[in-house]
Amino acid sequence: MTKNNTQLHLIKAIFLAFGLFTAIITYSGCSSSSSPSDQSTVTTSTQMENSSVSASHLKSSDVITSGLTCDSVVITKARIVISTLKLHHDDADTNGQGTIKAGPFVAEFDASGATFLSTVTVPPGNYDRIKFEIHKLDDKADASLLNNPIFGDFVNGGRYTVIIDGKVYVNGASFDFSFKSSKTDNVTIFITPPATFSAGASYNLAFVFDPKLVFGQPGLRPLDPRSTDNQSAIEKLIKDALKALKK
């Protein structure tokens, strides 16, 4: 593959649907003889960075803000239910041909490395948006979800959209936790300037989950996900931890 440095962009987009999503998108393209000559090939994956969130060094005069805190949080796995993931043309209707992955599906992030989602072909052109929906499953409409190895955790005990598992450390002791949220949202990432996908070229789109943006507090100790008082604050930060990187 040959890198095409002319297609390098860096964009930051802030969304206020819940007041909680910052995305950083990096773009570059690389040519590939395996790509269809009249289409662009997009491979998507997930990955997690900074799985450990540690406390900052504090002076005795420092004041901890609201919510229970801890010494550190280590994330082993984060999962999000998404209905559809799409790229949108800025100048034409692609009639669904910009669909990267149709769902519902679970985007899973862990410390083991990148996890493959899909490889699709899309029409070449300028794309100005990535859209996806964080989606609740309906076990009443589909009872088989209750025993499904992928979706079961999202319907047993409640209808959840996000599950984050890991350990909390306090005074040298570790405690398991499973943070669950039922929040839903339609998310649009605007790409400015639009990303140009060329015919016969291949692109990688990686969605990155960064736990320090969910549980970390600048200059303060991490939020303790076991505390119900922190539920709302953590939910407002979850989408800050999603970064879309196209490289």
What does this structure look like?
With 247 residues, the chain is mainly beta. The chain has one domain. It contains 2 helices and 13 strands. Strands 4, 5, 6, 8, 9, 10 and 11 form a 7-stranded antiparallel sheet that branches. The two termini are 12 Å apart. The N terminus is likely disordered.
Domain tally = 1
Radius of gyration from the CA trace? 19 Å
Helix content: under 10%
Largest pleated sheet: 7 strands, antiparallel
| Structural class by secondary-structure content | mainly beta
Number of strands: 13
The rounded distance between the terminal residues' Cα atoms is 12 Å
Q: What would you call the shape?
A: globular
| Overall pLDDT level | 76
How many helical elements? 2
The secondary-structure element order is EEEEEEEEEEEEHHE
Task: Give the strand content.
Answer: over 45%
Low-confidence stretches: 1-29, 57-65
Write the layout of secondary structure elements.
Blueprint: E1 2-15, E2 21-31, E3 40-48, E4 52-54, E5 72-89, E6 99-110, E7 115-122, E8 125-134, E9 162-170, E10 173-181, E11 185-197, E12 201-209, H1 212-215, H2 231-238, E13 242-246
Parallel strand pairs: 3-12
Antiparallel strand pairs: 1-2, 2-12, 3-7, 4-5, 5-6, 5-8, 5-9, 8-11, 9-10, 12-13
Summarize the structure.
The chain is 5% helix and 53% strand. It has 247 residues and is mainly β.
